[in-house]
Amino acid sequence: MATPPQLSNGCRCRPPLTSPSLHTTSDSSGTCRSQHIESRNSSTESLEHPPPNVPEGEHIDSSEGVIQKHQHPDTLDTLDNTRTSSINSSQESLKSTSTQVCTSMKEKNAGTKSGSSMGTHSASAVPLPNTRWSHRQWIKFLSLHWLSAYRVLIGLTFIINIVVFAVLCKRLSLAAPLIATAANIFAAVFVRQEDLINLTFAFVAKMPSNLPFWFARTISDLHHYGGFHIGCAISALLWYTYFVYRNTVLFLGNADAGTATASMWVDIVTCYSFLFSIFLVCITAHPRLRVKFHNTFEHTHRFGGWTALIVLWIHAGVSSNSPDNTHMHANPAVWLLAATTFIIILPWTRMRRVPITTEIVSSREVKLGFPFKHMPYTSTMRFSRSPLMEWHAFATIPNPDGESAYIVISQAGDWTKAMIQNPPSHIWIRKPAAMNFLAFSPLFNSLLLVATGAGIGPMLSLLRSPAIAKMKKQGRTIKVMWCVYQPDAPHWQFVQDIIRNVDPEPRIFDSKQGRPDVAGETTYLMKEAQIEAVMVVSNPKVTREVVEGVKAWGGAAYGAVFDS
Question: E strands along 38-176, which residues?
């Protein structure tokens, strides 16, 4: 790990994060004060309330929560000001200069609302020193971003397919690319199957906590299995493109010779139909297109995938009647296709329509309860009002009675807005609930849970789980950080109770006073409390900043993948 540059006061700074950031200035007396620079990003609206509108050239003073004018507007977007860490090899030097450069955690805790036992903080007011990254730090930060576990799995899948092609290319029959295509499609579908996810996640979660840190940190990236899904899907497209090329050359030769039969025409038409279908599915799954046109992505992925599957069955039946090809029962590609079809049909046999109870949490959040016996902890389930058109995944929270569960929905789009403003009496659910990345929490000796807004929902399931109770009994450290609009409001009391049952002194921010630098606060608390791993549930931007910021320090950090 690249060592952050040493500061003159003995502090080490964390790698700067792009946004939101804290901007440090000095008054005439030379005393540092901080200014909270709010990043306007629409991706945050799903989990946090927007702060008051701030005119250009003004800022929210993080210590007072009020709008003030910038004396120097040209410094508004400075991004290289970073938080210092209170835990390093020069702690004594840090203590002697902390009043000038750093604010300790105790000083920040003193800024809570007077007379309140909730320990709610306004936006962070920690003065941050000016620092610059070394070349090694930049290289490491970029590698963390571009060489994530997700992308590594995509690359490994490509490498495996390239090696297979390189080894067999000189003796590949016409059927070989079809088998490779079927194998990749099967793997792409199977890796997302809920039963497989639960089996593998449960196996990893039950590993002993005394594993080497590097192993626990690596194995906990298992929730990036979506990278394997994408790698296999694109590999299937490439294999089938190669098959279509060879089949087209063969067909054109027969057509020129006048020996092309009706089955050959059907075969070549189904080839290009399947190629177009799978190409369309892959293109619409591109991250930017998926986010911008999510409904189109979901419909194309579902109906385009079904169309491709039907066309592939027609193609398999037609090609098996050719005298040069093997019969269907002896063709490995057909058996792989049959297994893929079974996996795709299985979830539709597990749908149930259940009644729901609605409890309005706020104007932007709603709590939906539904009957479900023995709902597993740290799990995610899919919900729908129109099963053929769309499904939405939400983390489930079991009720103590063991007979029901609930989810917390935050307004993030048309579907969630309709659920809040006009909730139905019944909803479709799809079993089983699939375990999520929070299930890996017991692998670490100390843990920091970070959430913003309704992202606290998945954390509640973890906080009430037997795994956390066991960790507390063993004396392991569990800290909670939560940023939300008006956390002291009565509708959030049930959340406060669950949090404080595990962490009596959580770090809770009121975003009404201005949003803090969540990534900076996370890194600071992680270093201050000697935390091994961080679990974060927030919007994509904050999740990425927290995970990359913590990993830049050599810690372990995990968040949702946002690939569906």
Answer: 58-61, 66-69, 84-85, 120-121
